[in-house]
Amino acid sequence: MKEMIDREHRISIATLTDYHLQDFIRCPYQFYFFYIKGKTATQLNWRKKVQFVVNQVISRYYKLPPICQTAKKVMELIDEYWSAIDVRQFESKIHYYKALANITDHLLQFLTSKKIEYPPVFLYEKCNINIDELGTELSLTFEVAEWSSNSFIIKKYLVDTDEEMNLLFNNMISVFCEKAFGQLPERIEIFSLMEGKIETYIPTKKDVSEGLEYLNIIKNLLQEPSMYMKTDSLTVCKSCSFQKRCYEGINVNQERFNSQ
């Protein structure tokens, strides 16, 4: 008998965590199987493995004295951490080498294009704050936060991203900074390392109010697994361990819909 998805029970959300929300937006079904049902992935997610490498390289690089922050050092750090990644964790050898080339090129470009004069305010620090308007806690990791002339700049380095992901982080960062620090960042920079793109946002007070509304919507969606929708992203599905269960769930939900 096929495994059927029981997604009828409302779940409680104590903390809205950035990496949970990132996974939820990428695919609610994948989020459901992994975080709620506790299913073990049969194959490792290449994106998460590469993100770990990115995080380690950037963290180590920023901790170096300025004289050692060179392109050569970036290459050495990538080589050190990338060696732990197995080519079989990718869709193909071509995908593996393409990811390596893109991540290397764009990390070199983004890290060495401007001299780092002062140590960052935050460097991969996880912060939590209770948000009364949400009735829950908000948890956010600040990868890199640098001083600016008027305030500070938040930099987020992601393997890849899209419009929805950028919206999530712009809202989360705006709300968190206003509530925790009483001040908005001068700008938010989101780096997409596979594509080599930078999206820049200048947050305003309006972003805080809209961000609270947005996060309330996300929280309500998270609490209702019966309303989860499957992603339509082929790039997410191709490397997902839960494809079989996912399609079974779609069939079950379709039968329920037809019977109503």
Kindly describe this structure.
- By secondary structure, this protein is an alpha/beta fold.
- It is 49% helix and 17% strand.
- It has helices spanning 18-26, 28-36, 46-63, 71-82, 93-112, 163-181, 205-222, 234-238, 243-259; strands at 15-17, 122-131, 136-147, 152-158, 187-192, 197-201.
- Strands 1, 2, 3, 4, 5 and 6 form a six-stranded mixed beta sheet that branches.
- A hairpin with a 4-residue loop joins strand 2 (122-131) and strand 3.
- The chain is flat, with a radius of gyration of 20 Å.
- 26% of the residues are buried.
- The model is unreliable at 1-5 and 250-260 (pLDDT under 50).
Features:
disordered N terminus; 9 helices; 6-stranded mixed β-sheet; 260 residues; alpha/beta
Could you outline the blueprint of secondary structure elements for this entry?
Blueprint: E1 15-17, H1 18-26, H2 28-36, H3 46-63, H4 71-82, H5 93-112, E2 122-131, E3 136-147, E4 152-158, H6 163-181, E5 187-192, E6 197-201, H7 205-222, H8 234-238, H9 243-259
Helix pairs in contact: 1-2, 1-6, 3-4, 3-5, 4-5, 6-7
**Helix coverage percent:** 40-55%
- Treating each run of at least 4 consecutive H or I residues as one helix, how many helices? 9
Structural class of the helices, strands and pairings? alpha/beta
Biggest sheet statistics: 6 strands, mixed
Outline type: flat
Mean pLDDT: 84
Beta-strand proportion = 15-25%
Query: How much is the radius of gyration in Å?
Result: 20 Å
Report the uncertain regions. Answer: 1-5, 250-260
N→C terminal distance: 23 Å
Q: Could you give the order of the helices and strands?
A: EHHHHHEEEHEEHHH
How many E strands? 6
